[in-house]
Amino acid sequence: MTASAWKDVFEAATRSLPGHVWGTGPGAVCANRIAVVDCATGRSATYRELYDLTRRIASWLSASGVGRADRVVLSCPNGVDLIGAFHGILLAGGTVLALDPRGGVREWRRSLRGHEVRSAILTTSTLRGFGELTSEVGKVLTVDEPGSLDEGGGVAGDQPSGSDVAVLAASSGTRGIPKQVVLTHGNLAVNLAQIDLLHQLTSEDVVLAVTPLWHIYGMQMAMNRALRARAKLVIAPTPVTPRNLVETIRCHGVTVPYLVPSILAELVRSEDVEDTDLAGMRLIFSGGAPLPAALAQNCTRRFGVAVVQGYGMTEAGCTHVTPDGDPGPPGAVGIALPGTETRIVDLATGTDVIPGDEGELRIRGPQVSSGYFGDPASSVALTDSDGWLHTGDLARAHPRGHVTITGRHKRLIKYKGYQVSPEELESLLLEYPGVEDAVVVGHPDDIAGELPKAYVVLRHPVDLDEIIAHVAGRVSPHNKLRLIEEVDSIPRNAMGKPRLRAQGKGV
Predict the structure, then answer these.
(1) CA-CA distance, 446 to 424, in Å (whole number)?
(2) Which of the four, 38, 259, 386, 427, has the lowest number of CB atoms within 10 Å?
(3) Rounded Cα–Cα distance for residues 81 and 121 (Å)
(4) Nearest to 157 by CA among 268, 87, 83, 69
(5) Does residue 382 carry a pLDDT above 80?
(6) How far apart are the first and last CA of the chain?
(7) Helices assigned H by DSSP within 34-123
(8) Domain contains 465
C-alpha cells in the first residue's frame, strides 16, 4: 500500500469517533439481522436492538454526569449486555475500565486504585460480589435488571477525539500484576481499519468468540470486527469443551472462529469430534498465544480447514495478520499491517539482523499505546526514543514479509551461558504422541545457572525418559531438557497462556 493510500485509510478511520463500529447506526439493510447470540444464556439481539441498547446506556451515563474521558467501570460476563455497555460508554464519551467479572474484591480494589470513577455498569451477579466497593464506583447501573433503563434521551457533551482514552485494558499479567494499558479511540479505530485491509469479514460471516470480550483479542478481532462488518457474533458457552464447541459451530453455521491454541489442541485430540465437524468453516483463526506449527498442520490435516494466526499485544493491538489467501510458512503469524513499521533487532548490538536470523521484534505504528495508567516510569520504558515498542518477543522474517515468533526474550533460559528457548522445547514436547500439554521453565542450578525443566500432562502412561530422548534427538546439545515432571494440569489464562510462577517453582 502506498503512503498516500494509507493516509486516506487513516483519515477515514479517525473521522467519525466513536463510530468506528457503529458509524451512524445499524443501517436499514441489517437492522433486523441477528447481531449477537449468547450461547450461555440463549439470548440474542438484532442490530437494531443492540444499537438501541447502546444508545440507552449512553443516555443513562450522560444523565448520570458521565462525559468526555470520565472513567466507567464495566464488569459483565460475555454477552449482549457487555457489548451494549462497552459501546454505550464509548458513545457517551467515557473511558471503559474493564474489570474481570470472575475476579474478587481484592483484585477489583487493586484495579480501581488511583481512579476517580464516575459510574459503574454491572450485572446482578457482579453487583453482589462488589459489596462494599459499590461506594467507590459512583452511580451503578445493574444492566440486566428489568426496568433499569428507560427509553433514554440524547447524549450530552462533546464527542471524543482520536486522542481521547477509550479503554484501560489489563495487560496479560502472566509475570506479575497486570498494568492498565491506555488505548485511545484512534488506536482502536485505526487498528480495525488496518486489519480489514488484509483479513476481511463480511455481513455473511458468522464469527465465534471464545475469549473474554474485554481482552484485546476478543475485543478487537471478534467483537468489534464482527459488528463493524454487520456479521453475526456467536459467543461460545463456558466452559468451552470440544463437544459444546463443535455443537455451537454446527448449530450456528460458524464460518470464522477466533480460537486460542489450547482449544485447538483439545479439538485435534478429542474423540468426541468427527473429522467433518468443522468442514463448513472458511478458516480457523488462532490468537492470544503462540500457535505451534505442528498443531496448525495437524488441525488442517484432520478437519480440512486452513488454520491461520495473527500477532499482537495489549500495548499495540493487532500488528500482524495472515492475509486472506496467503497463509505463509507453517507457524508464521502473517505480515505487518499497513501503516505498521517493524524491525527485528540483534539484542547484543542493537542493529537489524540479516533476514532470516532471529532477533527481537520491534514495532511502531498508530495502534501502539502511549503507555500505562498511573505508571509513568513503565510508560516511558514502553517505547524507545525513536518510538519503537520493544515487544520482548523473538522473531524471524521470511520472504514476502511473513514473520514467525520463535520465543520470548524474557522467558529465555540461561543454561551454562547458552540461551535456550522454552517455546521450541514445548513445541517438540507437544509433538510426542502421549503428551497432552506442556510448559518449560528454568530451574535454578548452582553450576549451570538454570536447567530447562518440563512439566507435562500425559494422555496415558509414558516413560518420561523416552520424552527427554525424543526432544534430545531434535535439538543441539545445549538445548536439551534436563528435568521433567508429570503434573495433572497446567494452569492457563483465558488466552491460553500458561500462568507461570517464579522460574523453578513449578506451575
Answers:
(1) 24
(2) 386
(3) 9
(4) 69
(5) yes
(6) 45
(7) 47-63, 80-91, 105-112
(8) yes
The DSSP code for 5 is H
Containing domain of residue 423, as a range? Answer: 412-486
CA distance 397 to 307: 20
pLDDT at 500 over 90: no
Residue 468 grid cell: 527427554
Distance between CA atoms of 276 and 267, rounded to whole angstroms?
A: 12
Looking at the 3D structure of the chain, how many domains does it have?
1
Output the domain CATH number for residue 479. Answer: 3.30.300.30
Residue 502: what residue type?
A: A
How far is C-alpha 186 from the chain's CA centre? 18
Position 171 in a domain: no
Question: Across all residues in the chain, what is the average pLDDT?
Answer: 89
- Measured CA to CA, the distance from residue 401 to residue 161 in angstroms comes to 33
CA distance 96 to 87: 9
Cell 459512583, residue?
A: 138
> CA-CA-CA-CA torsion for 58, 60, 64, 69, nearest 10 degrees?
-10
* Residue type (1 letter), 310: G
Residues 65, 52: Cα–Cα separation, whole Å: 20
Beta partners for residue 310, in sequence order:
321
Do the domain assignments include residue 128? no
The answer to whether position 42 is within a domain reads no
Q: Give the tens place of pLDDT for each residue, 433-481.
A: 999 999 999 998 877 778 999 999 999 999 999 999 999 988 878 789 9
